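Notes from hallway chat w/ T.B., transcribed later so I don't forget. T.B. wanted the structure written out for a chain they're using in a teaching module, and asked if we could keep both sequence and structure tokens in one place. Agreed to drop them here.
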Amino acid sequence: MTSLRILGAAALLALAGSASATSFVVTTDAVVGAVAATSEATTDVSSSFNDDKIVLAARDDAASFVASAGEIRGAHLEAALKHIRNVQPQLAASDLQLAQAILTL
């Protein structure tokens, strides 16, 4: 009877370890995907808009937007976001990602 309990406990521990490892892999994949998307948006925006006056004028508004976690949306930032999306409609980035990209210019 004791060996049956030990075997059962070992099986449960093995299953629990496997579930934790799977959860870790899924979480890691999600984080890496999010970072990759942000990096791609930053690269696309920074390489295309280095000398764009509309986008460069939005740097202060972008800083306020990022610092306030999206609460403060200035007119220059709104114009820049609209401009970026018109020039690059295939770009799938959130407003926060674009604001962060504007800050890298």
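Follow-up for T.B.: The chain has five helices and no strands. Might be a good example for the class.
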